[in-house]
Amino acid sequence: MNQSQFDQLVERICSVQVTDSETPLVDLGVDSLHTIALVMAVEEEFGIEVDPDALADPALASPAGLFRYVQAWAADAAPARV
Amino acid sequence: MPVSDLLDHPLTERADHPAVIDADGTLTYRQLGTAVDRAVGWLRGQGLTAGERVVYSGGNDRSFLALFWATLRIGAIFVPVHPDLTDHQIDHIVADSEAALAVCRPAAGRRAARTVDVEEAWQQVLATAEDGFRADLDEDEVAMLIYTSGTTGRPKGVVCPHRQMLAALDAIHACLGYDEDDVVLCRLPLSFDYGLYQALMSALVGGTLVLARRSEDVGLLRLIERTGVTVVPLVPSLAQMLTLLQGKLHRPTRVRLFTNTGARPGRAVMAELLEVFPGSEFASMYGMTECKRISILDPAEYAEHPDSVGPPIPGDRVRILAADGAELGPRETGEIVVSGPTVMAGYWRIPLEAQNRFVRRPDGSLELHTGDRGWLDEAGRLYFVGRDDDVIKRRGMRVALTEIEDAAERLPGVTAAVALRPEPEDGPLLLAVHGTLPPEQVRAALAGRLDHSRMPDRVVPLDTVPLTANGKPDRAAAKRLVDAAAAASAPAADHHRSTRTTTASPRSSHEPVAV
């Protein structure tokens, strides 16, 4: 999955338009309920656990930030799977 | 006694018990008491005296509580304002209350005698020596002004004397029985009375208050588990979030009681919530800022009377009046009118004759005409039907939009429903629904449940439920979303899609500033 596909996931779950991946979710118009739904969808999709604190960091609370978080998680987990 | 004396009991008996948990950690009652004493010193250093108004526009944290308790202790009047309000909205409140001190954004507080930024004020408080001063107050002195929107005009300040606030606290306590081991989650803004009273109830019993912020919602369940939350006051959006989180995570919690007032979570959501939090109960309540609480349903009666908001709280009396002022009997719907010790002292600086809500009774006390519609059953339980401004005339019938929403929200697969006020009044009635049940099936299911005059002309999907800052579904914003979606589906009107992001902002200037 690339950023553009990830943005589509955000758009589908949160019913918003991602005009710029770096725009914070809240500025895209995503409310708390949809943020929770998004985190759950991401956890399901990638088989990871999102630390709730991660989203308190403004740099992570955008589609791009969340996608970077997912990728970092995948990178960390990769050796363990070998 | 003044409301601020509520802190005395926990300060002497339970000084080392956690009083407040916020984003910065835990404060014991002793530490909270110290912070309040410093805030008293700071306020007095600002030249503040009894009866003067302090506008405070800060978030949910210890600073709010310290300045709240301190303001009351010196006999001044606390005026809480939601920090998400625009500078223009706050400016109106600052000017209308003739604030001596505004702790808010400098641009919003210009018309106060003195303005200090929220963070700056807190730093100064922390650097001030403790001051044990207490004003000698009569209970009829004013403790707070809570600004609230009516159907017309600008927000008005509800005058809340110490006496009425204490009466409300005693009555709520008698019904809900918060105790000293309770840990109360306050995810509602402290600037709304439903939120602020959580702090007061908690102090009354010496319990613990957990202040949650919107930005922490994803970790809400973890917060509930970690801090041992036992009581959760709900707005519909919070009920949905907790259902979603706990439905997936199934964490062990100590939650024993959910409460709700104002907009009610859908029946299906509530049933699910109680199921995923085993051992929890639900107290359905009704009230408005003008008299705090009006009724509370005993949780034990919820299963049998799920639509009731309970009998009037001890001391209060509810009458149901027809349009001509005649008192109606059981099961007849009319305006809910309340009298008793929790009815507040009217609106700030508005002559009583100009206040259509408060009416002077022969014994001198005030009676509150709520503008809400409802009925009482034979046992005296109240049923809330809708607000007058939610009522439309359709095909010759008075129809409460909430009745239609309620019917839809009982359908499995409907998470939320918003009935849009038809314009003109005899125009098509649209019902916007959010959930997994397709709109055509919602309409089919409603056909058997609603009469002709209440049946929506069209059911349209709603991707997101716009909420006001206090978590209530926002009819006006929902209408803009539906209109924007309709415009966007027209071939040449793609640019209208951008409307969606602007209407998703938490409030417009038309929305209420308090519950």
TrEMBL record, chain A:
Protein name: Carrier domain-containing protein
Alphabetical keyword list: Phosphopantetheine, Phosphoprotein
Gene3D superfamilies xref list: ACP-like (1.10.1200.10)
Gene source species: Kitasatospora cheerisanensis KCTC 2395
Alphabetical list of InterPro entries matching this protein: ACP-like_sf (IPR036736), PP-bd_ACP (IPR009081), Ppantetheine_attach_site (IPR006162)
Domain Carrier, residue spans: 1-74
Keyword Phosphoprotein attached: yes
Entry annotated with the keyword Phosphoprotein: yes
Superkingdom per UniProt: Bacteria
Pfam families reported in the protein's UniProt record: PP-binding
From TrEMBL, chain B:
Region of interest: Disordered: 486-515
Gene3D superfamilies tied to this protein: 3.30.300.30, N-terminal domain of ligase-like
Species for this entry: Kitasatospora cheerisanensis KCTC 2395
Full protein name: AMP-dependent synthetase/ligase domain-containing protein
Cited Pfam families: AMP-binding
Top-level taxon of origin: Bacteria
Domain AMP-dependent synthetase/ligase stretches: 12-348
Gene Ontology MF terms in the entry: acid-thiol ligase activity
InterPro entries assigned to the protein according to its UniProt record, in alphabetical order: AMP-bd_C_sf (IPR045851), AMP-binding_CS (IPR020845), AMP-dep_synth/lig_dom (IPR000873), ANL_N_sf (IPR042099), ATP-dep_AMP-bd_enzyme (IPR050237)
PROSITE patterns according to UniProt: AMP_BINDING
N-terminal signal peptide: none
